[in-house]
Write a structure and sequence with these properties.
It contains 5 helices and 8 strands. By secondary structure, the protein is α/β, with parallel strands linked by helices. The radius of gyration is 18 Å and the shape is globular.
Length: 184
């Protein structure tokens, strides 16, 4: 239940999408900071985010090692001290259930790992995806803003349902407008 509640809080990063709407709908909720979107990076955890559902009901098909996660199932999750001590107002994370508080900062741990690995590749270090959007057909486009001309990077990451609509979204901030097909 704690893991699902954590993921539900993260899913607030996305706006609720109305499948019947014809007008473009923004996928990303700008009121939720990107650093408050947490996701497991283990291939053992799989789930979907159904952006058509209300907040608190979006995490579906949550599985661990192929089996549905039971609400009473226990998990030990590694995170940083900001999140573990209540940063972001995630449910159940208030500093009261910390198992191990290491003295190392996340940045120092990553630097040490990169120095040991010497070379990082997407296939070896960045291809594990624990989640996806639950498939839903929409009558109108679902859009988001990001750096321009990133389609090749998206496709390389396995995101084949993203297309760039405009190279400049007109906001003067250097963003392009993209659409994502949630039906696949």
């Amino acid at each position: 239940a704690g893991l699902k509640a954590w993921l539900e809080k993260s899913a607030e990063r996305f706006n609720r999408i109305d499948p019947a709407a014809i007008a473009p709908q923004e996928l990303i909720n700008p009121a939720v900071a990107s650093y408050n979107f947490d996701m497991p990076t283990s291939a053992d955890v799989r789930y979907q985010i159904d952006v058509t559902k209300p907040l608190g009901q979006r995490i579906v098909a949550l599985h661990y090692k192929g089996a549905p996660v039971a609400p009473s199932q226990q998990f030990l999750v590694a995170t940083n001290n900001y999140r573990a001590s209540g940063g972001g107002n995630f449910p159940g994370l208030d500093g009261g259930n910390i198992v191990l508080a290491a003295p190392d900062s996340s940045r120092d741990v990553l630097i040490a790992y990169i120095k040991r690995a010497k070379t990082l590749t997407r296939a070896r270090n960045g291809s594990t995806r624990s989640w996806r959007f639950a498939p839903v057909a929409t009558k109108g486009p679902v859009v988001f803003h990001a750096a321009p001309n990133m389609i090749a990077l998206a496709k390389d990451a396995g995101l084949s349902t993203v297309s760039q609509i405009k190279t400049d979204d007109g906001g003067g901030k250097g963003f392009a407008l993209y659409a994502i097909d949630l039906s696949k």
